Amino acid sequence: MLPIGVANKAEASNCSIRSVLSNVTGKWRMIIILALEDEPKRFGDLKRCIGDITQSVLTENLRGLQRDGYLTRTVDPGPPVAVSYELTTLGRSLLEMLKPLVFWSHEQMDEVRQFRMQFDREQAGRQ
Amino acid sequence: MLPIGVANKAEASNCSIRSVLSNVTGKWRMIIILALEDEPKRFGDLKRCIGDITQSVLTENLRGLQRDGYLTRTVDPGPPVAVSYELTTLGRSLLEMLKPLVFWSHEQMDEVRQFRMQFDREQAGRQ
DNA sequence: CAGTATCCTTTACGATACTG
DNA sequence: CAGTATCGTAAAGGATACTG
């Protein structure tokens, strides 16, 4: 069995599984990793590629991923300055873990939507 | 390449990959799925097993997972009443996607911690 | 036992303006 | 171009009290 539980609060902070799993929670971290699959990208490219992320949020999340060692940030002082982000070996390794999950998500999407609609209908019927 | 980006906001809501990936973001959803790996568990068992989750938050997340079809909720009217939660086929299928990620997390934890410490040292040095 | 109901705090996210 | 700085909102989570 996996050590997912904690006996107390002090233990929670260094609970191994949780601390690393939390790297891919949040709305954007997986998306960014996936966006860097094929090649290094510059800040503006990433923003365009993802589409609906704001500058400040993209910056925050890139910092976090860089801090944890999933990507590198390289500055080419211009002018104009160009900053590019690239997956590290660790990041690429995470990407490989994520890909099956993404394809699975894609496949199961309709089923989840069915379940949701049914659940919501049942809830509505109970009112 | 994976369709992770969106061209506009309207498209974002039915962007397949994101909508299902978001099922496993958040602090607790993966944890709950993992906690149900071995056998169905009752509400109190889950709470004890996870350790540091409050009743209300556990309830919310169980509802969400049930809504999306990952688990079932079965009531045995007592008294005393006993409610047990069990992974569905879909939930078990998700669990299998999650397990490699969890083991990977466990293995890579030290490396991530090293990166973090180094990054934080560099940041401190820059002040 | 398995919740609901409140209320509160924290975190993530978003919009906008400004800068070297 | 790639940010930073502010400010505001929304969602998640947490603490506590109460209930059939």
Overview of the molecule:
2 copies of one chain form a homodimer. Chain A is mostly helical. Chain A has a single domain, classed as Winged helix-like DNA-binding domain superfamily/Winged helix DNA-binding domain (Arc Repressor Mutant, subunit A). The first copy, chain A, has helices spanning 9-12, 16-21, 29-35, 43-50, 55-67, 89-126, and strands spanning 41-42, 71-76, 82-87. In chain A, strands 1-3-2 form a 3-stranded antiparallel beta sheet. In chain A, strand 2 (71-76) and strand 3 form a beta hairpin. Chains A and B meet through helix 2, helix 3, helix 4 and helix 6 of A and helix 2, helix 3, helix 4 and helix 6 of B. Chain A binds a DNA duplex (20 and 20 nucleotides) through residues 26-28, 42-44, 47, 53-57, 59-60, 75, 78-83.
Name the descriptors.
Arc Repressor Mutant, subunit A, 60% helix, DNA-binding, 127 residues, 11% strand, homodimer
List the helices and strands and how they pair.
The structure is a homodimer of 127-residue chains.
Chain A: H1 9-12, H2 16-21, H3 29-35, E1 41-42, H4 43-50, H5 55-67, E2 71-76, E3 82-87, H6 89-126
Antiparallel strand pairs in A: 1-3, 2-3
Chain A binds a DNA duplex (20 and 20 nucleotides) through helix 4 and helix 5.
